[in-house]
Amino acid sequence: MRAVRLHDYHQKVTIEEVPEPTISGPLDVIVKIGGAGVCRTDLHILEGQWAEAMAPALPYTLGHENAGWVHEVGSAVTNVQVGDTVILHPTPTCGLCRACRGGQDMHCENSTFPGLSGDGGMAEYLLTSARACVKLDSGTRPEDVAALADAGITAYHAVRKALPLLYPGTTCVLIGAGGLGHIGIQCLSALTATNIVVVDRNREALDLAEKLGAHHTVLADGGQVAAVQEMTGGHGADVVLDFVAEQGAENDGFTMTRAGGSYYVIGYGGCLTVPTLDIISTERNIVGNIVGTYNELAELMVLAQTGRVTLHTSTYPLDAAAEALADLDAGKVRGRAILVP
Amino acid sequence: MRAVRLHDYHQKVTIEEVPEPTISGPLDVIVKIGGAGVCRTDLHILEGQWAEAMAPALPYTLGHENAGWVHEVGSAVTNVQVGDTVILHPTPTCGLCRACRGGQDMHCENSTFPGLSGDGGMAEYLLTSARACVKLDSGTRPEDVAALADAGITAYHAVRKALPLLYPGTTCVLIGAGGLGHIGIQCLSALTATNIVVVDRNREALDLAEKLGAHHTVLADGGQVAAVQEMTGGHGADVVLDFVAEQGAENDGFTMTRAGGSYYVIGYGGCLTVPTLDIISTERNIVGNIVGTYNELAELMVLAQTGRVTLHTSTYPLDAAAEALADLDAGKVRGRAILVP
Amino acid sequence: MRAVRLHDYHQKVTIEEVPEPTISGPLDVIVKIGGAGVCRTDLHILEGQWAEAMAPALPYTLGHENAGWVHEVGSAVTNVQVGDTVILHPTPTCGLCRACRGGQDMHCENSTFPGLSGDGGMAEYLLTSARACVKLDSGTRPEDVAALADAGITAYHAVRKALPLLYPGTTCVLIGAGGLGHIGIQCLSALTATNIVVVDRNREALDLAEKLGAHHTVLADGGQVAAVQEMTGGHGADVVLDFVAEQGAENDGFTMTRAGGSYYVIGYGGCLTVPTLDIISTERNIVGNIVGTYNELAELMVLAQTGRVTLHTSTYPLDAAAEALADLDAGKVRGRAILVP
Amino acid sequence: MRAVRLHDYHQKVTIEEVPEPTISGPLDVIVKIGGAGVCRTDLHILEGQWAEAMAPALPYTLGHENAGWVHEVGSAVTNVQVGDTVILHPTPTCGLCRACRGGQDMHCENSTFPGLSGDGGMAEYLLTSARACVKLDSGTRPEDVAALADAGITAYHAVRKALPLLYPGTTCVLIGAGGLGHIGIQCLSALTATNIVVVDRNREALDLAEKLGAHHTVLADGGQVAAVQEMTGGHGADVVLDFVAEQGAENDGFTMTRAGGSYYVIGYGGCLTVPTLDIISTERNIVGNIVGTYNELAELMVLAQTGRVTLHTSTYPLDAAAEALADLDAGKVRGRAILVP
Questions:
Q1: What pTM, to 2 d.p., does this model score?
Q2: What chain B residue is nearest to D164 in terms of C-alpha separation?
Q3: Least crowded by CB within 10 Å, which of A123, C50, D267, D309?
Q4: Partner-chain contact D95 A98, CB within 8 Å
Q5: For position A305, what pLDDT does the model report?
Q6: Tens-digit pLDDT profile for residues C231-252
C-alpha cells in the first residue's frame, strides 16, 4: 500500500509502497483510511522535536488524526464490524490500568500513539485497536471529520472541563482562533450561554471567530489584556482557554483571569511565571489540558453529526503529502489539510 | 480599653488605652475578646508589607484571629445573642454581592479585614459584623480555638477542596508542618484515608506531624522530590498541599505532582516557573487557595469541638503582646501564641 | 394604593385601597410594581390549599411573581438604589443561616413568601428585602419578565441541576410544556446540546415546544412511555424533567428514565410508587426541585436579556385581576397573565 | 473439581465433581478459589427469585463473592499473572461499551454475573475475565476479603457517592447494621467526620455498630423516626443510607431525611410511596445504588489492607456448603459465612 514515510528528521517525507498491516492481537483492528489530518505536530515531528519523547523506529508512517472504514478485526473485537465508518481516538489504550478503568484514557499507563510512536494513518490502511474506534453514522465522510480525532477532541476536552464554570453571566476568553481554537468556539457556543471573547493576532481568524459564535473579538496587538479588563468591569474573565500558551500569551492569559477564576492551558511552547502570592491572593487556578477521553470523542461526533461543530478543510491526495506539509508550513492552508488516500 | 496598637511601621507595638468600639450599623456586633492569635502575618504588617494593599489609617489595633463572647449587637442581628461564645470569620462580608450570594465569602466585593485594614482583636473588645460570627458551644474557651479563625480556616479550605481527589490508594504530600500545616494534617486524617506524606525542613515538625496523623515524613534536605517519587512508584503524588510555596518549595511541589494530579498553593512568597508543555503534557493543575468560607469555619469548629483538630498554643496576657511578637520572630513560640486580654 | 385582596377562601378577590407599605427594617425595600404574574398557585390559594402551610392573616394581598422599580430603601441597603429596575426572588431570606451562607436560598430557615405568607405584589407597591432584589438593565420592562420570578427560576433551577448529565448524545425528556415547561425547553436549548423530547397532552403546547427548541415531541395519549423507549433504543431517557408529576405522569416519568439516569420532579400533586428493587437494580435517581437560588435568578435574567429565554404574556390592568384569574381558571390565557398596575 | 451445584430451585445444593473450566478467550482468567462468600442472595436464588432475571442454565455452580489466586490466563491478559492473589469484581464487563469507557462498570451493556447467570466461585476454580481481577498484596488471605467482592463493594459505592454531602456537622443515618451495613459504618468512619447514627431492630447489631464507629444507635422498635428527628433538632438527617429498604424501612428512611437531603436506597424488597409534593416542597433526593465500579473495589481493598475495614467471618469447608446455607437461613451465622475449598 501507499504510505507517507519519515526516513529521517529534517528531511522531506516520501510516499512509497509498504506492506499492509496485519492482525496479530485479538483486539486489533485494521482501518481503511478515508481521511488523515495534517497537523502542526507533523511539522514538529519532522524537526525532530518528538524524537526523544516518542522514540519511533525510523522509517515509519506519519498520521495521528484518522478516520475511515473498518477493514479487518481481531478475534475479540465486538464493538465494530467490517465496513463500519469510524473515527479513531489518537491513543489506543490498554483498558486494564486504573486510569482506563476510570475512563481517563489520556492517562493510560500503556497507550501508544500511532503517527508519533509508530506507524500512523497517512496510508491506505492503519493498524489500531478496538478501543480506539468510535463508530459513526454510515453516511459520514471520514475526510470531513478526521481532524476532530486530535484537534477536535483536545478542544472539546478543555471546554467540557470548563462547563461548570461557564454559567450565564460569565465571560470566557479564548486565546487563539486557529485549528483547535475554532473548534473550541463552536463547542462553547453549542454548550454554554457564556459571553465568548476571542483574542487572536490575526484579523481573519477573528472574522471567522465571529461567524462561529464569538460575541466579541480582540486583536492581540499588545492591548489585549487591557481590553479584556475593560470588557469585564476590571475583573477579568471567569475562564480563559489558552490555545496558544507561548510567546507571552501564557502570562497574558493568567493575568486576564479574574479572582476565583481558572486559566486553562491547551497550547504550549511558552513558560508560565507567576508569583505564588498572585495565585493565592486571588485564588486563581491553572488547569492543564491534554487530549480527551474516548467518550468525549464520541460526544464531539454528536456535535459534528448534528452540524453544531463543522470543520474547514482542504483535501490533498495522499501522494501530495509533502505538498500539504509544505503548504501548512508556509501558512497557505485554509482550515485543516486532510490527506485522502 | 487596652489594645495593641501599631503607630508606625518598623516600630514595636504599644499597649494603650483606647475608646471601646460602639455599635452604629444594624448588623454590627461587639465581641469581648477571649483569645487573639499572634500570626506571622502580624510580623509582616510591622515590616510594612501590607501597608499598600490594606492601607490602614495609623495608628490602629492589630489582631485578625479572634474568638470571644458577644457583648452587644445591632438592631438587625438575629444569629447571635449577647453572651454567646463565638469565633470570628476573618473577613466580615456584605452578604449582598454575587460571591456572598453563592457562599464564596472570600470573594466578597465589599469585605473588610479587621487587624489588617482597620482595628482588629488584640484588645478587650472588637467591632465586627453578624456575618462574621460563628456561634460555639458555651463551654468552648475562646483562647483554645482563636487560631482556627485564620490559620485553621485556610488549611481546612484547601483540604476540603482537595477531598474528591483523595480517595483510598492516593498519596497526598503536605509541605510545611507549621502553624497551618499541622492543622492541615489533622484535617486530612479526619476526612480521608489517603496516604499522608509530610515534608518539612525541621525534624521536630516532622515528629509532631507523625503524632497528628502523617503516615510518612520526609526531611526537606534537598532529596525531597526524589523521596516522594520513590514512595509513589515514580509517579508523584496525586495531590500536593504546599503550605510554604517559597524558597523553592513551589517548584518542588509542582514537580512532585503526578500526571493528572493537582498542586495546591497555600503558602506564598516564591515564584512558580513552569513550561506550559509540562502543564499540558501531564495535564496537571495548579490550584490557588485563600481563606475559606463562613460555612467552612463552622465545619472546622465541629472538628475542633469533637477533638479531631486540636491546637498547640502558648498564651500571653494582652499586655505582653510585644513579647509574644518578639518570641514568634525569634522562633521561640511552641505552637501558636495567643493573647488573652 | 390599589391592591388585589383575598378576604376569604373560596371567594373572589377584591381590588381595593390599602395603605402603602412603609420601611421599618434596615434591609427593607419598597418596590413600585411594574408587573405581577398570575399563577396557577393563586388559584390554589383561593381554594384554600395553602391556608394551613402558609397561614397568612386574612385579608392580604396576593402576588408572588413580581418585578418593578425600587421606590424606597432601608438604611443598610447597598445593592440597589431608588429608581433601579428589579425582579424579585420569591422568598426574601435571612442571609445568616447556614443555608443562606451556602447560597441555598430555598432552604433558608427564616424566609418569607410574599403573596403566600403575607402581602404580595398584586398592588402598586410591595415591601420586600434587599436580598430579594436582582437589578436589571434599566431598559427592561418589568411586565415582560415578572413571570421569570417564580415560574422561570423554578424551571431554570431544575435544568441547571441536570446540566452535568446532559452532554451531547444524551436524551432529555421534558413532561409538560406549559408555564414552567416552556421556559425549561428554552433553558435546555440555550445551555445544552442534548436531544430534547417534549411530552404533553396538548398538541398546541407541542407545536410551541418545537418552536422553542424541542427536537422531538410526543403526544401524551397513553403511548408516551413506549414512544420514549422506542426513541432511545429501548433504554429510556438519561434525564426526565417532570413539570406535571400528577395524574400518572410521575410514574410514567420514572419508567421513562434509563438505568443510571435521573428523574427530576418539578410539578406536584401525584404520588410516586416505586418498588425499591426497581430503584436499586437500575441505579436510578429521583431528584426533588423547588424554586432556585438568588444567583440562579440573576443568571436566568442574563438569558432573558440576551433573548435566549422569552415569555409569552397577556397583560391585564391591576383592576382586572379577578378577570385574569377567571381566564386562567378557564384555560383562556395564552402564555402567562401579567397584572400591570 | 468439587463444586456447589444447583440442580433445581427449591432443592438443596449438591457438592459434586465437575470438569475444571478452561481458557477460551484472550482475556479469560481462571482463578483458584481461596474463599467464596455465602450471601442471602444465594438463598433467594434457591427460592427461584432470580430464575427469570438471570435465567441460568441448570445445573450450575453458585458463588458470586470470590477471591483467590490466578491459575491460568488468556493470551491478551496483562494485568495479572499466574500466582497473583486477586479479589474479583462480581460482574466481568466488556470494556468497550460507553458505560465501561466511562468507568461505570455496573452499567456495562454486556456484563455477566458468575454465580447468578452462570457458573460461580463455590468451587475449586472459577472462569472469569482479566477485567474482573483486582490484584492484592501477596500476603492477603482470600478467605478474609472474599465478602468484600459483593457486599463490600456495594456498601462502599453508596458511601462514596454520599461523601460530598457528609461534611463535618452533618448527620448520616444508616439503617441496617448487617452484612453490608457493618461495612458501610466502617467506610463512613474511615472517610468522613459525619455524625453516624445507626438504626437496627437488633440490639446486638447496634452493639457491633458502636464498636465499628457509630456515634449513636437507635433501636428500630417503632420510635426510630421520632428518635432521629429529635437527634437532629427536628430537621432529619442530611443523608440516610438504607441497607434494608423493605418492611417499612424505605418510607421511614425517606421521612428521616431532612429538607435538601438525600435518601440512598441500597437494600430492596419494599415499595417506596411518596407524594410528589413531599419531594418538591422539601427538595429531597432518592438515590439508587447498585454494586460499585472496579476502581471502587480496588479502593476498598486499600481500606481492608490498611485495617480500616475488617470483616467478621465464619469459614466452612466447600463440602459444607449446604450447612452454611442452612445456618445462614436459620440466622446462626455470626458475620459472613465463607466457603474455603
A1: 0.96
A2: B164
A3: C50
A4: no
A5: 94
A6: 999 999 999 999 999 999 999 9
Separate counts of helices (H) and strands (E) for chain C:
12, 17
DSSP H/E element including B142:
helix B142-145
Q: How far is CA B13 from the centre of its chain?
A: 22
Q: Count Cβ atoms within 10 A of the Cβ of residue D226 and give its class: 0-12 exposed, 13-18 middle, 19 or more buried.
A: exposed
DSSP A279: H
- Distance of alpha carbon D127 from the chain centroid: 21
**Which H or E run contains D260?**
strand D257-265
A3: number of Cβ within 10 Å: 30
DSSP per-residue codes, A316-336: EEGGGHHHHHHHHHTT--SSE
- Rounded to a whole number of angstroms, the distance from the CA of B71 to the nearest CA of chain A is 32
All three cell numbers of C235, joined, read 433504554
- β-pairing verdict for D195-200 and D216-219: parallel
State the ipTM, two decimals: 0.95
Grouping H, G, I as helix, E, B as strand and the rest as coil, residue B82 is coil
Q: Which residues of chain B are within 8 Å of residue C298 when distances are taken between CB atoms? A: 98, 101
Half-sphere exposure of C46 (CA within 13 A, CB side): 21
Q: If you average pLDDT over residues B275-290, what whole number do you get?
A: 96
For B80, nearest residue in chain C (alpha carbons): C96
Burial profile D24-51: b = 16 or more Cβ within 10 angstroms, e = fewer: ebbbbbbbbbbbbbbbebbeebbeeebe
* pLDDT band (50, 70, 90) for residue D53: confident
Count how many pairs of residues, chain B against chain C, have C-beta atoms within 8 Å: 55
Cis peptide before D59 (omega within 30 of 0): yes
| Cell of residue B39, nine digits | 500570626
Three-class SS of residue D68?
strand
In this complex, the residue of B275, B277, B285 whose CB is nearest that of residue A286 is: B285
Q: How far apart are CA C75 and CA C72, in angstroms?
A: 10
With bands split at pLDDT 50, 70 and 90, how would you rate the model's confidence at C333? confident
**CB atoms near residue B158 (< 10 Å):** 26
B193 to D302: CB separation less than 8 angstroms, yes or no = yes
Distance CA C7, CA D1 (A): 84
- Dump pLDDT digits (tens) for D242-289: 999 999 999 999 999 999 999 999 999 999 999 999 999 999 999 999
Helix (H) or strand (E) holding B125: strand B125-129
DSSP bridge pairs for B272? A274
Query: Alpha-carbon torsion D18, D20, D26, D29, what sign?
Result: positive
Grid cell, residue B287, equals: 490550584
Amino acid in position A117: S
When pLDDT is averaged across residues B74-102 and rounded to a whole number, the result is 96
Cell 437494600, residue located = D267
Which residue reads 402576588 in cell numbers? C63
Q: Residue D296 in contact with residue D153, Cβ under 8 Å? A: yes
User: Which residue carries 413531599 as its cell?
Assistant: D278
Looking at residue C312, its pLDDT comes to 84
**For residue A106, is pLDDT > 80?**
yes
A 10 A CB-CB count for A17 gives 8
Instruction: Return all residues near D223 (Cβ < 8 A) that are at least 6 apart.
Output: none
With CA atoms as reference, report the closest residue to A183 among A310, A16, A39, A71: A310
Question: How many CB atoms lie under 10 A from the CB of residue C50?
Answer: 18
